[in-house]
C-alpha cells in the first residue's frame, strides 16, 4: 500500500522510520511545513517528498498518518475523510472542544475509518491487563492506579499552548483506564500543584496533578502525573480486583530506587524518554493502521474514544479550578 505522512517533527520522523520498515507499505510520501525537513526525511527513509498536505493526499495514497501540530488536526482529518481514505491522527482530535465534537460528527457521517494515536493500547502489558480483567482473572476491579511521570517539563512555549496537564498528559492515563477496564468515567475530582517553574502558575497550569475518577460501576481510579520526575519516565498501571492484582510497567527499567534490603530490583538504566518506554507500542499502532487501511479491522481507537477522553480532561480541568467533583455529563456538549 501507499501511505502518506504529514508532519515530520520528533514523532513524525519516528513514524517515518516505522512506516518505511513495514512490509505492508510499498511506498511512503512525506510532507512538512518546513520544506528542508521534508527533503531531509524523504532522503533518509527513501520516501517521496510532497510540497503540501493537499499534494500528498492527491498523490494516490491509500491512507494518511497525521503527526502535525495540534491546531492542524481537524483540517487534515477532514481533508483525508473528504478524499475517502483512512486516517491515523496523533492525539488530540483538537485543542478546541467544539472543534473536536464537530470533527467527530463529520467522521461519523463520512463512514471513513479514523484511528487516533493512544499507543498504550498497544503496549503488551497493558493489553495483557485488559485481557486478564475481561477473562475474569481479577474478579471485579475496585481500584485502578495509573501513572505518568515525566522526567522534566517541556519549555514554557509548549506548556502555554498545551491546554494544561490534564488535556496534554493525563489524557493518556484517561484513555488507558477507560480502555483496560471497559468502563465509562462518570465523575472526576482533581487537584494539583504549580510548585516548580514559575511559568506553571503564570499560565494557570499545574506541574503535578492527581485525578480521582469514578466509573459507572462504582470502581475508582487514581491518575497521578507530574512534570518533575528526574529519575526517569514512569508509566505504570495497576488493577486491583477481588481475586487478583496485576501491574503493567514494572520492569528492570522502571525509574524507582528500591530501598528494600537485599533487593537489587530494578537493576537496569531507567527509562528517560517516552519513546524508549513505548517504542514497540508506537510501532504496533501503525502496524494496526495498515490493517485498517487494508479493510482487515475497524479502527482500534476511534474518534468516539478520543472524544470520551476529551470529556474526562475537561471535567478534570474544571474540577481543578473550582475545587469540586465534576460529573462528565456536566461538561458534555
UniProtKB/TrEMBL annotation:
Residues 2-118 form the Gfo/Idh/MocA-like oxidoreductase N-terminal domain. It comes from the Bacteria. Residues 126-246 form the GFO/IDH/MocA-like oxidoreductase domain. The keyword Cell wall biogenesis/degradation does not apply. Pfam families: GFO_IDH_MocA, GFO_IDH_MocA_C3. GO terms for molecular function: nucleotide binding; oxidoreductase activity. Keywords: Oxidoreductase. The keyword Glycoprotein does not apply. Belongs to the Gfo/Idh/MocA family. This is Gfo/Idh/MocA family oxidoreductase. It comes from Nocardioides panacis. The lineage of its organism: Bacteria, Bacillati, Actinomycetota, Actinomycetes, Propionibacteriales.
Amino acid at each position: 500500500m501507499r501511505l502518506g505522512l504529514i508532519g515530520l517533527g520528533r514523532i513524525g520522523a519516528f513514524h517515518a522510520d516505522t512506516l518505511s520498515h513495514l512490509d505492508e507499505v510499498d511506498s511512503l510520501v512525506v510532507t512538512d511545513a518546513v520544506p528542508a525537513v521534508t527533503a531531509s526525511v524523504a532522503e533518509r527513509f527513501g520516501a517521496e517528498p510532497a510540497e503540501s498536505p493537499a499534494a500528498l493526499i492527491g498523490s494516490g495514497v491509500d491512507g494518511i498518518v497525521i503527526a502535525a501540530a495540534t491546531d492542524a488536526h481537524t483540517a487534515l482529518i477532514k481533508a483525508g475523510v473528504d478524499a475517502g481514505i483512512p486516517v491515523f491522527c496523533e492525539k488530540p482530535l483538537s485543542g478546541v472542544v467544539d472543534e473536536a465534537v464537530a470533527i467527530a460528527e463529520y467522521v461519523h457521517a463520512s463512514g471513513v475509518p479514523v484511528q487516533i494515536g493512544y499507543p498504550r493500547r498497544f503496549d503488551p502489558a497493558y493489553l495483557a491487563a485488559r485481557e486478564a480483567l475481561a477473562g475474569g482473572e481479577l474478579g471485579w476491579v475496585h481500584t485502578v492506579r495509573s501513572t505518568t511521570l515525566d522526567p522534566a517539563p517541556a519549555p514554557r512555549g509548549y506548556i502555554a499552548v498545551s491546554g494544561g496537564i490534564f488535556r496534554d498528559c493525563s489524557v493518556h492515563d484517561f484513555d488507558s483506564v477507560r480502555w483496560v477496564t471497559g468502563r465509562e468515567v462518570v465523575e472526576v475530582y482533581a487537584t494539583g500543584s504549580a510548585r516548580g517553574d514559575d511559568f506553571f502558575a503564570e499560565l494557570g497550569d499545574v506541574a503535578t496533578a492527581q485525578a480521582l475518577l469514578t466509573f459507572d460501576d462504582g470502581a475508582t481510579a487514581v491518575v497521578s502525573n507530574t512534570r518533575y520526575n528526574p529519575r526517569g519516565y514512569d508509566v505504570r498501571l495497576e488493577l486491583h480486583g477481588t481475586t487478583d492484582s496485576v501491574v503493567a510497567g514494572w520492569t528492570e527499567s522502571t525509574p524507582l530506587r528500591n530501598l528494600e534490603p537485599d533487593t537489587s530490583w530494578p537493576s537496569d538504566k531507567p527509562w528517560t524518554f517516552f519513546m524508549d518506554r513505548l517504542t514497540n507500542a508506537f510501532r504496533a499502532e501503525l502496524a494496526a493502521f495498515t490493517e485498517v487501511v487494508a479493510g482487515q479491522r475497524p479502527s482500534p481507537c476511534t474518534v468516539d474514544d478520543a472524544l470520551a477522553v476529551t470529556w474526562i480532561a475537561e471535567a478534570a480541568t474544571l474540577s481543578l479550578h473550582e475545587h469540586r467533583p465534576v460529573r462528565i455529563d456536566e461538561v458534555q456538549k
